[in-house]
Amino acid sequence: MIRKRTSAFLLALTFVASFALSLLPVASVSATEDNHYTIATDVTFAPFEFQNADGEYVGIDIELLEAIAEDQGFTYDLQPMNFSAAVQALESNQVDGVIAAMSITPEREENFDFSEPYIDAGPVIAVHEDNEDINAYEDLNGKTVAVKVGTTGAQFANELAEEYDIQINQFEDSANMYEDVAAGHSDAAVEDYPVMAYAIQQGLALRVATEPEQGYPVGFAVNGGQNPELLEMFNTGLTNVRENGTYDEIMSRYLGEEETAAQSGGFLALLSQNFDALMSGLGRTVVLTLVSFGISLIAGTIIGLFSATPNKALNIIANIYVTILRGIPLIVLAFFMYFTVPQLFRVQISAFTAGIITLSLNTTAYIAEQVRGGIAAVDKGQLEAARSLGLPYGTSMQKVVLPQAIKIMIPSLINQFVITLKDTSILSVIGIVELTQTGRIIIARSYESGAMWIIVGAIYLIIITVLTKLSNQIERRLIND
User: Fold this and answer.
1) Torsional sign, CA 268, 271, 273, 275
2) How far apart are CA 466 and CA 475, in angstroms?
3) Is residue 434 a contact partner of residue 288, using CB atoms and an 8 Å limit?
4) Which parts of 140-239 are beta strand (E)?
5) How would you class 449 by CB atoms within 10 Å of its CB: exposed for 0-12, middle for 13-18, buried for 19 or more?
6) Beta pairing class for 216-223 and 112-114
7) DSSP tag of 326
8) H or E stretch covering 71
9) Lower CB density within 10 Å: C or N end of the chain?
């Protein structure tokens, strides 16, 4: 009977594994079909790339890419993620190119092939508008400087730190970096001049304290030796849009002297203007949670039963799985699934699929322990009594132990569901535009981080409260049955 139960467990586990593998699109890491490409960008870096109030991606890079693609007759999917993740996605061939105000530095040219430059952008120091103490680099001695991870501004700040006594705070988003200075946590920020000038133009309470440094030119990047035809089309298209005046129109729209009206109107207006985008992000959060938790419930039950069975080999398998997956931080696991796995196995995995797999693997380990604990919490005399009546081990577990264990496990499973929902926010690092990432994108446009994080936090609180109440009703019905 034990062999039959073990076979059933392995069959179920094979089903789960097959389901997970079916989510992996088997695709070549290089070529695209019919001149269609996947282009990564950082949509929190106005005026180069950001999302407007209508939910459309706009900015210098976005509109320039659109004009070049139209001129050259290729199509593309835009993949939004933070800058450092975009660079990693390009390295692992998860995307075909990156357009994100990416400076052409000697270090980057060792790994990437760049287009002809389309703009020059040197770093500049900005401080709070009321700060009159910092007007030169030497005034930064003993101060804290905010930078954005992976940018030439961060590199420039590190160079300044070699000469002056500077403490550096690093951020993934420009908006959070600005907010840190505005809130007084950092004394200054280092950013490319066009980006900083645009932010101040939108009403940000900062001022430029130094003259822009000589910067590196900005270009479109592909992985070294990959997609040469895309690079050639970009360069040809860039020449054409410069000649027909489209380039000048785009630059004038975002870097001209005319001020652009920033979003305003207070807390309720911010919520109203961005309600559709927030609900879309919430929808992705809920789908990620439901799908990954459903997979984890099946796989976690199987691994948990492996821990409870007298079979030592299955005990070892369960122990190894739980130890490894509980010991790896979720963000590291997400990076591994999205960046490392494609490099190792030469397949492409969409960010959404990588997110589902990441959450499922992580949550399975915790559910397995909850199943094991639930079974262990049932008095051993229950199993012994069933066996003494002549019931086989499998039947004793199924008819006597598991029904009692399930009632014990329900509160823990409900709690794990809530944790999984909140963990979806970590997946924004690989470009999934769930609720948290939606908030970041809105902040990059509106520069109203305080109000937006209150809104995002309130949405999480409401949805978690509703789901918890619903789960509690299910728990009471199961216990009373």
Assistant:
1) negative
2) 14
3) yes
4) 143-148, 166-171, 188-192, 206-208, 216-223
5) buried
6) antiparallel
7) H
8) helix 60-72
9) C
User: What is residue 424's DSSP assignment?
Assistant: G
Give the tens place of pLDDT for each residue, 218-245.
999 999 999 999 999 999 999 999 999 9
Q: Give the predicted TM-score (pTM) of the model.
A: 0.76
Which residue bears the tokens 């029904």? 403
Q: What are the two backbone dihedrals, phi and then psi, of residue 390, each rounded to the nearest 5 degrees?
A: 95, 5
DSSP count for the chain of H helices, then E strands: 20, 14
| One-letter amino acid of 86 | A
Helix (H, G, I), strand (E, B) or coil at 171: strand
Percent of the chain with pLDDT over 90: 53
Cα atoms in the 13 Å half-sphere on the side-chain side of 427: 30
Token pair in block for residue 31: 């070529």
* Unique residue bearing structure tokens 């939910």: 55
- Is the pLDDT confidence value at 32 over 60? no
Distance CA 152, CA 244 (A): 31
Quick one: average pLDDT of 377-381?
86
Give the pLDDT band (50/70/90) at residue 214.
confident
CA distances 131 to 108, 128, 154, 374, Å, are 35, 5, 22, 59
CA atoms within 13 A on the CB side of 209: 24
Burial code of 143-162, b = ≥16 C-beta within 10 A, e = fewer?
bbbbbbbbbbbbbbbeebee
The CA–CA distances, whole Å, from 345 to 92, 173, 324, 361 equal 11, 31, 21, 18
pLDDT band for position 447 (cuts 50, 70, 90): confident
